[in-house]
Amino acid sequence: MSSPSPEHISIRLEVHIPTQGGARPVLIQHPPAAVVQARLFGNVTSSSPQSNSTCPVRQMGGSGSGTGIGTICGWVTYSTAQADVFALASPTSSYVPSATPGASAVRGIPDASQSLWTWSAGNEIPGACYSAAGVADTLAVWSRPTAGSGSGSSWVLDEIPFTGIPGTTGPCGTGSGAVMIATAAATKVTTYPALWCVVIAGFHADPLRALNAIWALRQVADSPSPTWDNAGDGIHVGHIRLRLCNTRGWELTLTHGAVALTYAIPFGGSAFGPLLFPAQQTNVPPVGLVNLPPITVSAV
Fold this sequence. Notes:
CATH topology of the largest domain: Immunoglobulin-like
Order of helices and strands: EEEEEEEEEEEEEHEEEEEEEEEE
Number of helices: 1
Low-confidence stretches: 1-41, 176-188
Number of strands: 23
Strand order of the largest sheet: 19-18-17-16-15-14-23-20
Shape: globular
């Protein structure tokens, strides 16, 4: 379980100072007025960059200097759909929390469920500082839930600390998009869990309802990419497969009878999860439009 986000409390004091004509209240607020509501916990359930991880920053002024300010790519996930999500990076030393995204913040691109938001080569996040030794940065992410899934139209701020290091001058500091930045580290991983536990609940119609269970996935030997499955035949017993793909990240494929569907999330930097595949709505032949429930996969 991830640690709660740092607390940000706006304190409002009234001090009555005697003056001619009576005492007048003087309002004192700390931190500055930009923080207009108390925020104890944020909404983000997982992210890239992860909290307190390192992240390559795209060098905007040419390579070789080793220090500067550039852009990053990444993604965040939520347990519910979001109407809007914006992000902006800043050096932690000069970071000031804001209750709303400013003009420099960049809107993420949502998936079909609007619970996974991505910043890639076309909408990179500005403001990240980097050096060869690493610079403490803060990624501010503002989210606003869709109608019926949260607290109206108010913004919720999440803050993700990370360390900025020099990347390349190519998109996302790696020469590719957000999916590559999320999976590049996967090619360097040599140790994986031998066993994963998959918790599936929320399928209401046949034949997918038969997949509602807790499944154990064991590593598949001699697979070209890291793969785990439950050894089900996909006919009498559902076949559940987890695979780490260099281009898409984590893929979870469920097969039962004539129905097959795949969830996918970016790698995220950790080979041991836990992995949260968000809910989504998609067309699943021959069933039709299906509301897919969120699925959690944990290393055992």
